[in-house]
């Protein structure tokens, strides 16, 4: 039995929006990062679903790339958050506001 | 290649002066500037052009080289002179030389930069008057702003920063409007393949633009005409776009004022003549009355403002506004004497206003004030300089046998009987009242500054003016009288270039 | 180019060139020259006089001269009468009128130069180089104006003499009053010249020519235009001629100090008395009247213009004479009398009395120059005291000055047989003749007639106060002696003032029926003449276009009537002055005038309203304009920049610095974009 | 010219050379971890960049990627995952130039800085990514190149670990970047969903298949625009830019604001012209996507310039101005709906090239100022001209050029853009609004650019400074950039031809 593609799309959209919500509401850098990961994975859901729908592997392949790059992104991100903590003694993303206007 | 030589000499001279030590910069720049001056005089002698550059006339010292192709349009290095531009080039080179001399006394810091900028602006000005490709012309047109901005900004008076930025931004926005309008026109003209002004002018004569932006051809032409007019009106300047001028003049150092009044204002009128009044005969006819009204207002209003001033430089600045009003009136008259007189007035006013600013500068160098109320009886201390100042003032009032009278008389005669302009007689008579007001404020100023018992608020010892200043003053005065006695020295070549315009489209 | 002219006329340009050269020489080397440049001036003016006399002789020899010297510029004319091109040239026109005027001008100029030796040099003035240079420049301009053969050239030199007048009035520039007087003189005349210039431009633009003489003259063009009944600038030809004529008249009124432009002349007395004699009595002020005479053919075409000229003339004559009555400064009296006398000339010309006008112009030049120089001499005597009430009893101390001055006074008052009588009488006679059928002219005549009385009165008031009675001050006790340089010119002019009238004794001629009206013959082209510039041509034109003359009884009776009337009034005036002032210790008698005194003393408040126009009206207006410019117009400009900078300040606040806000704004912006495109694309449909 | 047969993959040489340089630097670092031999490191970088530049120029000259040349026509690699055409080469050149300039300048800027090798290798890696962006021809490669650019950039911005500004800048850049890339990827997924392919031509081919998923496709395209907008610092994805540019080391700001922006634009140019040809796309999604760019262009240039007008911090002013310039260039995409779209795009490309010089130069001057330690605000810059006339003259050139005043390069490109916009507006009147906005904004920009010139040349110094050093590297880079900016106008002919042809190949 197969599930129609639009349900996958709805699911991914839901996940995407949850991620987006997190991005907008969370002030902790790590949670912010995780929310972004959610959004990326929402994209992955789409890709794989559509790969199945279109019957070609491009989507799945791209999903793999996405995961890899997401990992790299997280790595860099954690590095930055580290120095953030070192400089501001906090991982709240709303604290650093020395530059504005 | 003569024009290229002119520009190159000035440019290279600018670079050389820029790196020269301050000590010798002044003399060096003077020596260098003699070359273009001499060259331009040679050009004047060797001038073999005829007709109007934009009306298939025979160009002198023409040279053209492809520059870039953009889409279906080609832009080229295209310079040449006709009877209108040549006198202006000569005026430029001469005034630049004299401006350099007149800055020997007042400029006492960063000389090399100062004189470098003067030579740079000279190069750009020559380019403005000789370029015949719109894009190239615009390059020079805009490039003039930089040196003037710095001249005012660095060596200017107390409010120099405000004045400089005002001048810079105000004229720049005008240029953008003008650029946009003209480009739109070119795209509106179906079969034009380049930005060369003669080609555009020809196309305008042969039917004008097709529609654009959903505007009909004629509407587009009118819109462009107005756009260009506004763009140039700021540069001229025409009331009510004149407010940058007094600030710029008052703050600018004397040499900058000389160039500003002497040449930079003429860029505006020159452009008006080259673009609006050469390419759009129909629009000129359609808008003749409003333009004439603006001209009259400029004349009277400008003169009235001058009457209210107590700063000598402000007086001359506002009177420039007034004088430029005459030019507009002459242009819109669209007769040989009208347009010719307007062109003649460009030269004449260039010389006389240069003379006035130079004389005021000499007084300022001695007294360190320009306030009419701060001094009197200067004739007692610096008789020769004051004598020249008085002569210049009467030249400004249009005293016969001086160029000012010739110019104004030509304009008045040309516009009084103009067929194209309705109510021409009325407009002319109104504008002529300017000659009374100008006498009013200049004589008031003279009476209070140079006559009467000697008195000076600032405590400086006023002696006779330096020889080099007096010399350059006399040179200008000589030219003014020469052109007043023998206007045909240049009026012949001017009218030769004007006729194709005023005699309608036949090429 | 002038060389093309045959015979003596080839030298015509020299008349003007001599003083010009003198000007240059004096300007450049005056400091090192003996007499500080007086000599070049004297030589030059002498030369001019000689050449002028040669010209006059040549004209007398039945010849005339009209040539173009130099083309100033030429070009296309869009003229109403269809002339295609127009040339603006410098040319020489020597006909009886200009020849006469040349002689007058160069003669007076010469005498004034000589007089200056005594008046300026001897008094140890500084700035003499400037003085003589300017004098030379003036003489040059004036002579060039006189022989100008076209209106534009006339205008140019008309302006130049104005400049010289400005400079010379302001000769003592270290004082407060002189520069201001100079400025006033130039401004008032400039105001007139404004109309003049419009007139020149209008005439040029109408007829495509500005020539005075010959077929190509605008006068001829105007005649033909009127005959063809052409419409010019929307008016019928004659109206347009009137308009343009009156515009030119503006300049005339200004220069000849006619009402309402007369206010500058009294102030002009701030200048050296020599200057007053030359410029503000004999020559420059005459330029206006001369111009009317020069282009009389044009005015003759317009009765309206003529009657306006006549009326203004008559009015000014009386108006100024009344003011002269109460002046205490000897030069002031002379100034107002000058205004009044030019009024007579205008009256004469205005009624078509071409000869009368020119005749009075000539006589006046002589006797008024004489009076001014006399006054100058008196001023030397009095150590530069000009108040007549401080003088008195000078007649024994300086007989030469006295008798010459007296001659001038008699001429001015118009006592037979002195020159003034003949010319003034002729003016009045012509006025009467026309006036009998033209009420306006009659009024003008009446005013002129009344003025005769005042003239006699103030003239002799002046004479008596100055020379008669007891000395009223120490300086008057032992005056400063005067030298030959002063006396010679006085004697020369005195003689002329006495006898110049004999050249045109019309009444005698009528009575005795002998042809002794030489000036009339002279101007009538009995000798040399230029076609269309002769008296009888004018006379016909006037008769045909404007006025016809009528007489009380016969012409002769009318003449005798008018002559007797004017002579009687003059004598009456003189006698009144005698009774009031010719006493050892005269009284001011101001109370007799009552309220009128203050009015007269303050010149009918003419200066007040003109000063108000300049400083009470124009200046505030200018200041208001300036405020408007600074606030409104410039305000808009600066306002624009202020607004954009304020906007900038507002825009950059979006960048709060808090990254979650950024995320929110980012998403918000994205959604906004989504909505716009979605709406356009109808995705939500 | 002699035809030399090279393997096709060598067409990627410019990018590969950069990658190799990066590896060399890594090698050096692993051998000698704590080396602070700045000369070797920056030297290597410069050599690599110049080599890449040389090759790219050579290819362009040789006609690689030029249409209508048989051997060297447009080269497809890995069945269209990469494509080397004039457009690609043009931007590879831009990237290489900027990299070289930045590397030279960094030599002095980074003195007594610990992580030399890391810095340079990250720099070159980012450059590699940008080079790849120029050639990527599939959403996959595009995304990889994008990230390859972004990740090192994050690190580079934050590389001054003990500088709060730098770290804050890094954080903001990273967070917004992550968010944007997430959006981008989601957009990719939607596009894939609608068309079933990621290779650009294939997407274009399958557009009609999208059918009822038009809405999804539209959303996807919009999200792709988002990703691009992030890279080019365009509204509304621009928020990172002011902070990142202000906080980052000046050379990095120069690098990001010039090269990174250019790379973002080449991406946009290629993706939207190749994958979403207007007619076909409009048929599916029901709206002409150039509208998005019209709006973005106007908003971006206005916001950038207005925000810049009253800045006190020079670097921040430049940051906002760079947003404004992104707005100008966006017109290149906005005008694609018209027949003269290729011309406008060509003009936009020229502007990016010139911008690569003048903006880089400007930021490097700020770097010089930081090197001197004179301070960051306009006031701190007062009267520098009296002490360092050459550098200040160069800065004046950059400012006037950015403001579009002749005779400098910025004038040429901006006015080409302006006139072509007007030409395009004859077909799409909405562009008149863009042209008008351009007029207003460049007027405003003139105000704040000349404000800096005023500070340098006109104002008197607030407090006495001791004499300023003249670091060779920074000076060299600045002067070089200035000279090119000053004279490039004369050479506009060939440049315009190349750019227009490059644009024509993708648009046509």
UniProtKB/TrEMBL annotation, chain A:
Its membrane topology: Multi-pass membrane protein
TM helices/strands, residue ranges: 6-24, 31-55, 61-85
Protein name: NADH-quinone oxidoreductase subunit NuoK
Similarity comment: family membership: Belongs to the complex I subunit 4L family.
GO MF term (any one): oxidoreductase activity, acting on NAD(P)H
Gene3D superfamilies: 1.10.287.3510
Superkingdom as given in the UniProt entry: Archaea
CC terms in the record's Gene Ontology section: NADH dehydrogenase complex
EC number: 1.6.5.11
Pfam families linked to this entry: Oxidored_q2
Predominant location category: membrane
GO biological process terms, semicolon-separated: ATP synthesis coupled electron transport
HAMAP family documented for this protein: NDH1_NuoK
Location within or outside the cell: Membrane
Keywords attached to this entry: Membrane, Oxidoreductase, Transmembrane, Transmembrane helix, Transport
């Amino acid at each position: 039995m197969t599930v129609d593609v639009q349900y996958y799309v709805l699911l991914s959209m839901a996940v995407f929006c949850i991620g987006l919500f997190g991005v907008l509401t969370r002030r902790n850098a790590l949670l912010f990062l995780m929310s972004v990961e959610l959004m990326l994975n929402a994209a992955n859901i789409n890709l794989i679903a559509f790969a199945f729908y279109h019957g070609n592997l491009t989507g799945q392949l791209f999903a793999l790339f996405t995961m890899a790059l997401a990992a790299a992104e997280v790595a860099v991100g954690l590095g930055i958050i580290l120095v953030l903590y070192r400089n501001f003694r906090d991982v709240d993303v709303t604290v650093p506001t020395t530059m504005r206007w | 290649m003569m024009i290229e030589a002119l520009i190159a000499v000035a440019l290279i001279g600018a670079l050389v002066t820029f790196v020269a030590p301050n000590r010798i910069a002044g003399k060096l720049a003077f020596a260098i500037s003699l070359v273009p001056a001499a060259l331009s005089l040679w050009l004047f002698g060797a001038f073999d052009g005829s007709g109007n550059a934009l009306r298939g006339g025979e160009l002198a010292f023409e040279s053209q080289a492809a520059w870039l192709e953009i889409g279906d349009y080609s832009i080229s290095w295209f310079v040449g002179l006709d009877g209108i531009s040549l006198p202006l080039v000569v005026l430029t080179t001469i005034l630049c030389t004299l401006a350099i001399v007149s800055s020997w006394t007042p400029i006492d810091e960063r000389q090399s930069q100062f004189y470098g900028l003067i030579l740079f602006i000279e190069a750009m000005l020559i380019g403005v008057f000789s370029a015949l490709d719109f894009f190239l012309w615009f390059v020079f047109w805009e490039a003039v702003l930089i040196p003037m901005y710095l001249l005012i900004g660095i060596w200017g008076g107390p409010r120099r920063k405000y004045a400089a930025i005002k001048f810079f931004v105000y004229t720049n926005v005008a240029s953008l409007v003008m650029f946009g309008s003209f480009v739109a026109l070119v795209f509106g003209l179906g079969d034009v393949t380049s930005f060369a002004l003669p080609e555009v002018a020809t196309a305008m004569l042969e039917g004008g633009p097709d529609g654009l932006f959903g505007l009909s051809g004629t509407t587009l032409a009118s819109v462009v005409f107005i756009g260009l007019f506004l763009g140039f009106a700021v540069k001229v300047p025409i009331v009510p776009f004149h407010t940058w001028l007094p600030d710029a003049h008052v703050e600018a150092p004397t040499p900058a004022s000389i160039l500003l009044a002497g040449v930079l204002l003429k860029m505006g009128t020159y452009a008006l003549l080259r673009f609006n009044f050469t390419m759009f005969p129909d629009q000129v006819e359609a808008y003749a009355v409003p333009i004439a009204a603006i001209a009259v207002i400029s004349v009277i209003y400008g003169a009235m403002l001058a009457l209210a001033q107590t700063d000598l430089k402000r007086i001359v600045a506002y009177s420039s506004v007034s004088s430029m009003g005459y030019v507009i009136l002459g242009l819109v008259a669209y007769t040989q004497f009208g347009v010719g007189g307007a062109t003649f007035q460009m030269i004449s006013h260039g010389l006389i206003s240069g003379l006035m600013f130079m004389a005021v500068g000499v007084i300022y160098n001695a007294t360190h004030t320009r306030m009419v109320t701060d001094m009197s009886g200067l004739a007692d201390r610096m008789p020769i300089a004051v004598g020249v100042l008085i002569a210049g003032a009467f030249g400004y009032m249009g005293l016969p046998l001086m160029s000012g009278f010739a110019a104004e008389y030509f304009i008045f005669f040309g516009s009084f009987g103009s067929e194209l302009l309705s109510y021409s007689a009325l407009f002319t008579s109104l504008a002529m009242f300017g000659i009374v007001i100008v006498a009013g404020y200049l004589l008031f100023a003279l009476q209070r500054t140079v006559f009467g018992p000697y008195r000076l608020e600032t405590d400086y010892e006023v002696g006779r003016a330096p020889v080099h200043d007096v010399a350059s003053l006399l040179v200008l005065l000589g030219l003014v009288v020469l052109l007043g006695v023998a206007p045909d020295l240049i009026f012949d070549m001017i009218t030769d270039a004007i006729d194709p315009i005023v005699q309608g489209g036949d090429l | 180019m002038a060389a093309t002219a045959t015979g003596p006329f080839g030298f015509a340009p020299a008349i003007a060139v001599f003083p010009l050269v003198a000007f240059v020489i004096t300007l450049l080397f005056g400091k090192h020259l003996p007499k500080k440049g007086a000599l070049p001036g004297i030589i030059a003016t002498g030369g001019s006089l000689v050449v002028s006399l040669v010209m006059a002789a040549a004209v007398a020899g039945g010849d005339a001269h009209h040539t173009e010297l130099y083309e100033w510029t030429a070009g296309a004319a869009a003229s109403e009468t269809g002339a295609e091109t127009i040339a603006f040239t410098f040319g020489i026109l020597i006909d009886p009128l200009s020849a006469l005027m040349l002689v007058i001008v160069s003669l007076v100029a010469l005498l004034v130069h000589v007089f200056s030796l005594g008046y300026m040099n001897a008094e140890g003035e500084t700035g003499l180089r400037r003085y003589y240079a300017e004098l030379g420049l003036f003489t040059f301009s004036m002579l060039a104006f006189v022989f100008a053969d076209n209106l534009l050239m006339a205008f140019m030199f008309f302006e130049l003499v104005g400049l010289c007048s400005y400079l010379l009035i302001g000769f003592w520039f270290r004082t407060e009053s002189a520069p201001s007087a100079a400025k006033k003189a130039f401004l008032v005349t400039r105001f007139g010249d404004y109309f003049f210039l419009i007139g020149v431009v209008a005439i040029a633009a109408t007829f495509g020519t500005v020539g005075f003489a010959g077929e190509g003259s605008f006068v001829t063009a105007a005649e033909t235009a009127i005959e063809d009944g052409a419409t010019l600038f929307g008016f019928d030809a004659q109206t347009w001629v009137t308009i343009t004529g009156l515009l030119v008249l503006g300049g005339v009124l200004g220069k000849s100090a006619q009402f309402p432009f007369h206010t500058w002349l009294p102030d002009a007395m701030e200048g050296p008395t020599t200057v007053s004699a030359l410029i503000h009595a004999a020559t420059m002020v005459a330029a206006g009247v001369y111009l009317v005479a020069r282009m009389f053919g044009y005015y003759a075409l317009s009765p309206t213009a003529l009657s306006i000229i006549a009326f203004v003339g008559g009015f000014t004559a009386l108006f100024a004479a009344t003011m002269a009555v109460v002046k205490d400064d000897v030069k002031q009296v002379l100034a107002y009398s000058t205004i009044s006398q030019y009024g007579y000339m205008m009256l004469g010309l205005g009624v078509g009395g071409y000869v009368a006008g020119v005749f009075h112009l000539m006589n006046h030049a002589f006797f008024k120059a004489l009076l001014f120089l006399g006054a100058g001499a008196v001023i030397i005597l009095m150590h530069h005291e000009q108040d007549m009430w401080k003088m008195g009893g000078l007649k024994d101390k300086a007989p030469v000055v006295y008798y010459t001055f007296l001659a001038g006074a008699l001429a001015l008052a118009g006592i037979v047989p002195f020159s003034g009588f003949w010319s003034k009488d002729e003016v009045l006679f012509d006025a009467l003749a026309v006036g009998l059928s033209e009420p306006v002219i009659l009024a003008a005549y009446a005013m002129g007639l009344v003025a005769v009385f005042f003239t006699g009165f103030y003239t002799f008031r002046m004479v008596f106060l100055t020379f008669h009675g007891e000395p009223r001050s120490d300086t008057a006790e032992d005056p400063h002696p005067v030298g030959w340089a002063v006396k010679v010119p006085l004697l020369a002019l005195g003689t002329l003032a006495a006898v110049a009238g004999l050249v045109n004794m019309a009444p005698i001629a009528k009575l005795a029926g002998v042809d002794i009206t030489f000036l009339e013959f002279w101007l009538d082209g009995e000798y040399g003449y230029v076609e269309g510039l002769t008296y009888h041509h004018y006379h016909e034109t006037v008769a045909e276009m404007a006025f016809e003359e009528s007489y009380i009884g016969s012409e002769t009776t009318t003449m005798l009537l008018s002559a007797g009337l004017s002579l009687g009034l003059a004598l009456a005036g003189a006698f009144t002055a005698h009774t009031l002032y010719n006493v050892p210790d005269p009284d001011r008698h101001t109370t007799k005038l009552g309220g009128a005194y203050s009015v007269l003393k303050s010149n009918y408040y003419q200066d007040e309203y003109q000063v108000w126009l300049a400083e009470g009206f124009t200046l505030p207006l200018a200041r208001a304009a300036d405020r408007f410019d600074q606030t409104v117009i410039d305000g808009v400009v600066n306002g624009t920049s202020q607004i954009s900078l304020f906007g900038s300040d507002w825009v950059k606040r979006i960048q709060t610095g808090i990254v979650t806000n950024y995320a929110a704004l980012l998403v918000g912006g994205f959604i906004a974009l989504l909505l716009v495109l979605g709406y356009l694309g109808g995705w939500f449909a | 010219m002699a035809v030399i047969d090279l393997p096709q993959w060598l067409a990627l040489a410019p990018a590969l050379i950069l990658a190799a340089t990066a590896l060399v630097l890594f090698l050096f670092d692993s051998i000698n971890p704590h080396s602070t031999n700045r000369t070797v490191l920056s030297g290597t970088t410069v050599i690599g960049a110049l080599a890449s530049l040389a090759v790219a120029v050579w290819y362009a000259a040789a006609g690689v990627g030029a249409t209508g040349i048989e051997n060297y026509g447009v080269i497809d690699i890995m069945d269209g995952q990469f494509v080397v055409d004039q457009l690609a080469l043009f931007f590879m050149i831009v990237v290489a130039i900027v990299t070289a300039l930045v590397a030279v300048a960094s030599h002095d800027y980074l003195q007594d800085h610990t992580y030399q090798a890391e810095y340079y290798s990250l720099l070159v890696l980012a450059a590699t990514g940008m080079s790849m962006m120029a050639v990527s021809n599939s959403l996959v490669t595009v995304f990889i190149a994008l990230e390859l650019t972004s990740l090192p950039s994050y690190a580079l911005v934050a590389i001054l670990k003990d500088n709060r500004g730098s770290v804050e800048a890094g954080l903001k850049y990273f967070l917004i970047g992550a968010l944007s890339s997430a959006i981008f990827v989601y957009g990719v997924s939607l596009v894939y969903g609608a068309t079933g392919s990621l290779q650009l031509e294939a997407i274009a081919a399958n557009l009609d298949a999208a059918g009822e998923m038009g809405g999804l496709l539209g959303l996807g395209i919009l999200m792709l625009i988002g990703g691009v907008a992030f890279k080019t610092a365009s509204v509304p994805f621009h928020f990172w830019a002011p902070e990142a540019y202000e906080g980052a080391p000046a050379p990095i700001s120069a690098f990001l604001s010039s090269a990174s922006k250019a790379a973002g634009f080449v991406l946009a140019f290629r993706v939207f012209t190749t994958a979403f040809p207007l007619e076909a796309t409009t048929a599916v999604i029901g709206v002409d996507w150039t509208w998005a760019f019209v709006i973005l262009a106007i908003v971006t240039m206005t916001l950038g310039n207005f925000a810049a007008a009253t800045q006190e911090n020079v670097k921040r002013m430049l940051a906002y101005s760079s947003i404004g310039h992104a707005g100008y260039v966006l017109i290149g995409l906005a005008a694609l709906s018209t027949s003269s779209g290729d011309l406008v795009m060509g003009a936009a490309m020229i502007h990016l090239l010139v911008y690569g010089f003048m903006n880089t130069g400007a930021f490097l001057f700020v770097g010089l100022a930081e090197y001197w330690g004179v301070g960051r605000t306009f006031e701190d810059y007062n009267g520098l001209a009296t002490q360092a006339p050459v550098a200040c003259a160069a800065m004046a050139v950059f400012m006037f050029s950015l403001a579009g005043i002749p005779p400098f390069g910025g004038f040429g490109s901006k006015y080409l853009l302006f006139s072509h916009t007007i030409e395009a507006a004859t077909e799409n009147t909405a562009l008149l609004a863009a042209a008008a906005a351009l007029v207003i904004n460049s007027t405003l920009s003139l105000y704040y650019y000349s404000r800096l010139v005023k500070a340098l040349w006109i104002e008197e110094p607030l407090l006495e400074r001791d004499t300023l050093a003249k670091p060779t590297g920074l000076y060299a880079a600045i002067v070089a950039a200035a000279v090119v900016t000053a004279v490039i106008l004369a050479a506009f002919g060939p440049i315009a031809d190349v750019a227009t042809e490059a644009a024509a190949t993708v648009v046509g």
